[in-house]
Amino acid sequence: MLKLRPPAKINLVLEVLRKRADGYHDVRTVMQSIDLCDEITIEEHPAAGHLELHTDTMSCPVDEMNLVWQAIHWLRQATGLDAGLAITINKNIPIGGGLGGGSSDAGAVLLALVSQYGLDIGRDDLNRIAARIGSDVSYFLVGGTALATARGEIVNQMPDLPETAFVLANPRLAVDTSRVYASLGLKETKEGLASTRNACAAFLDHPHGPKRWELTKNDLEPAARRLYPRLNEVFAMLLALGAEHPMLSGSGATVFAPVKSLDDGKELVVRLQTAGFWAVACQSINRRQFDLRQVGEVPSSPPV
After folding, report:
1. How many CB atoms lie within 10 A of CB 261?
2. What is the three-class DSSP state of 282?
3. How many whole angstroms separate alpha carbon 285 and alpha carbon 279?
4. By three-state DSSP, how is residue 204 classified?
5. How far apart are CA 292 and CA 157, in angstroms?
6. Is 81 in contact with 117 (CB distance < 8 Å)?
7. Which of these, 88, 129, 87, 92, lies nearest to 110 by C-alpha position?
């Protein structure tokens, strides 16, 4: 039996550069792992080639729509893996929340199966499988602080962000990422939203000190807030509670803000939950901590 704890991510900076001919968008984004994790158990099934998924969340698919299912399918195609598998996914990361929960689950399962069965597959081929599954999955083969470009599948490790506490909140809705991107109205040209100033580079050049949060940005945030007005309620309450620099993660629906300490974050969580929002306090994790969570070598208590 394997037990994994795939961590969520937040986007500290997200720039949309242009729409591509294939319908996707080129982006430039600084991604950061946090200690909010799903929990996955992988057990062998006696029937060769068998695959069954179980989950504690009704809105999480257990068929080919699940990114874990897709990860195993393409890994079997590439390596000939025929072990029967029964996988249970317990969701702590909200679905459609902009935190990469499904992508993180897929990345963790890829790495775990390659290691467990000693599969003969190089990193480049594994990255190709990850990119085929989804734009964020490649990041979850790396973790920590990283710069992602193209669709998000080209990932470069960056020096780890100093340990930082965050409060996360969303209005208990799932955002349709494709709808948010479509609303940008970009054409298949070099047209984009990003200015000539590289916001990712500016943030990465100043990773320490409170002023770094003034360098965060998310080009998807205005569109998401327009399409999903309830997001504005989250921003308003965070600001009313004294949180500074709240920002949307990915296309939403989760909003995060840095806080001075995990205890400060927990105090905000109580207020946010009382108002009906989903909310947790969490911390950033570095690359080593990310790797340990992937193989279940850390305590299993989730953030509160």
Report:
1. 11
2. strand
3. 19
4. helix
5. 17
6. yes
7. 129
Give, for 76, the enclosing helix (H) or strand (E).
helix 67-79
Predicted confidence (pLDDT) per residue in 65-122, tens digit: 999 999 999 999 999 999 999 999 999 999 999 999 999 999 999 999 999 999 999 9
Going along the chain from its start, the domains and CATH numbers come out as: 1-294 (3.30.230.10)
> Length of the chain in residues, anyone?
304
Count of CB atoms within 10 A of residue 297's CB? 11
On the 0-12 / 13-18 / 19+ scale of CB atoms within 10 A, 91 is middle
pLDDT per position as a tens digit, 158-187: 999 999 999 999 999 999 999 999 999 886
Residue that is written with structure tokens 């729509």 in the block: 65
DSSP conformational letter for 284: B
Q: What 8-state DSSP symbol labels residue 193? A: S
Catalytic residue list: 9, 136
Of all residues in the chain, what percent are helix, strand and coil, respectively (each to 5)?
Answer: 35, 25, 40
How far apart CA 57 and CA 302 sit, in angstroms, is 16
- The residues, ordered by sequence, that sit 6+ positions from 129 with a Cβ below 8 Å of its Cβ are 71, 74, 75, 78, 110
